[in-house]
Amino acid sequence: MPFTRMDTKWRALRIFTAAIATCALACGNVGAKAAAQAPVPAGATAEFTQLAAQLVAAREAAGPESEAAEERALAILDGVALEGLNRPSPDVAALNQRLAGLVKQQPSEGETYSVAQLKGSPGAYALLADFGLGGPSAVRIYAGAPGKLALAGHVDRYAQKDFIDDYIELLPLETPISLFATIAGRTDELQTGVFTIWRFDGRAVQAIWSSDILQQSSYRAVPNGFELTYCAQTDPDDPSACHGMERDRYAWQNGAWKQIETAKLPAPAGK
User: Fold this and answer.
1) Residue 146 phi/psi, 5° resolution?
2) What is the pLDDT of residues 173-194, one digit of tens each?
3) Residue spans per domain, the chain
4) Which residues contact 12 (CB under 8 A, 6 or more apart)?
5) How far apart are alpha carbons 149 and 81 in whole angstroms?
6) pTM of the model
């Protein structure tokens, strides 16, 4: 089904969640073993900071946005990510510390850059780029032989016209092929989210399933799939009320993404 752009009211409610997420990235890795990686060159850092600010300002002003500026900023991230991933012994935790150094907004207000490994065949890495609370987001996919990884796919509003790119999260799935989920929204008081499952087949990345906008939603990766819990019986007169929840489980089976289980759940207490 077609997507619409995210409701701008969600943005004001994302600051707290985004700050926690950034702390989890930047603070949680403090004790990790750091690889000997050179810092991002000062010139590239300055250019990237300027481009990120430009992208956020253009989005917040609801004016024309520059595909070239976004692609240049993403190309700088590609360079940092691939330099780390193509080392003899890639250290993703250390790489993410390095990427976190590119975050200049304090508090971060949704600005996040991080890499995660995709499981399953053919195997790849995904970089999530959130340029800030009011800016765009994108995903970059890196694949290839060890030491020779290169950009192999991307998800952004220019490549996928209906992609909601205001602010997203990324979750690799535990499946035999390379699948991952993107989650847009979910930082408003209703935990509202839009969920999309993507497949990387070694040549390109494509969406294979997407949800509607779901209230009071939560999610998790499960063996061979994805579990989604949400309010299935909303109240049009009271958005905070839910009269019934549902839990759906999806899995990759016989070469396709399928819903394999659904369960009705009681309404949340006090709702």
Assistant:
1) -50, 130
2) 999 999 999 999 866 777 888 9
3) 8-164
4) none
5) 10
6) 0.82
